[in-house]
Amino acid sequence: MGMAASQARYLALTARKTNTEYEGQQINQARTALANQSANLFNQLLNLEVPTAPKTTDYTELQYSYSDGANDSVLDSWQQLSTADPEYNYIVNHYYYTNRFTGAEKLLQNPEVQVEENVVSEYNWVDRAASQLGRYDTPPIVTIDSTTGDVFIDGESTNYTYKEVNTTTPTPTNLTDLTTALSAAGFAPLTDGDYAFQDVNGVWHFMYRNEVDDLGNLIGADHVIQQSVPSYVGNCKLTELVGLTKEQRTELMQILQDCPESEIARYLSIDGDSLRYTGEGIYTFQMNGQTYYTCDEDLAISYNSTAINDNPIENQAKLAYYNTAYIKTKVEEQNHALIETDGKGRFTSIKFDDDSVVYSLNTETITDEAAYQDAMNEYNYKIEKYEKTIADINARTSIIQQEDRTLELRLKQLDTEQKALSTELDAVQKVIKDNVEKTFKTFGD
Description:
Elements: H1 3-47, E1 60-67, E2 72-80, E3 90-108, E4 113-124, H2 125-133, E5 142-144, E6 150-153, E7 156-161, E8 163-164, H3 175-185, E9 195-198, E10 204-207, E11 221-233, E12 236-237, E13 239-240, H4 246-258, E14 268-271, E15 274-277, E16 282-287, E17 290-295, H5 296-309, E18 319-341, E19 347-352, E20 358-360, E21 362-367, H6 369-444
Antiparallel strand pairs: 1-2, 1-21, 2-3, 3-18, 4-11, 5-6, 6-7, 8-9, 9-10, 10-11, 11-12, 13-16, 14-15, 16-17, 18-19, 19-20
Helix pairs in contact: 1-6
């Protein structure tokens, strides 16, 4: 090998050796970073808190209960009085559950309110008045003031005000429309002295003068012409209430008391212990074997929403409807009480400040199953989260170990290459040295 070639080879080997040393340093730094990551993961593993399953004993408590013959009551909490009192030594909160008669307002999805046009009906004034006054024992006296057209029931003014018909100066002004409707319905046209009016719902009321006697007593019917009358809700037929049964009166009074802001309250009022009903505007319908109530206003809101929103009938606004039911209700009370114990700290009897009876207390161990199940659900969630975290750490650790093994293998390859380069450098360096010695010896001779 020539002098120049040996020098070139030596420089190339030196460069390669330097490069392998640098690459080895980079690998060591990468392995150090992986070691730090692995240590962090291990620390996370050490800091994980293993979830503990709840114990039923944590949700179990001693409960005292008693029965007064009508209800089974439970002592909810008690606090001993700070001052001595021979009659009472505790303030006690106790409760019981009872089925309470309750009125409710509901909303019916897709009500499909349907109406019938030009329906004629007649309401007997005595039935209407009896329904409105809430009594049936004595037929009420119904009169009309011939001057004002006001209707009175037993001397009490109602919301019915007729106007006397005058064909010369028609009153109401659209008498022609009413006459046409009467003719279409088979009634005789109205003449002077007959009575008519149109209520706020657009319903025509009329009576003939021969239906009022000389004393002003109404002896005939209140004839009604409604241009559109609600007939069905879906496939449930609507029936308008004229008179009320005792059961209906009880249900509607409860609905009015529990839903005073509802639309049905327009048609009902309470006078003392009696329910007053105008005699029109409230309907019943049967759905799934149950009877429900609704009213003209609620039906109109649903039916008219079709025109307002340009919706098909099945997309009408939800219909408000009403019913009554016995609802299980928690009744809570607080009383001063005299509680006796058995000498071991356990209560045995109780007497309240508003009751002369001493009740024996039953001692029961009660587990709050709902709270325990909630705690168990929380535990299951935490244990799943814990196991997932462990799995994630193990998966990440496995990846780090694989990367470290790859770097370690590469480092061994570089070490082997480094040794080979060192051996070859030594050989080239010896060749160069020999060449130098020969050259200087040649020139020295």
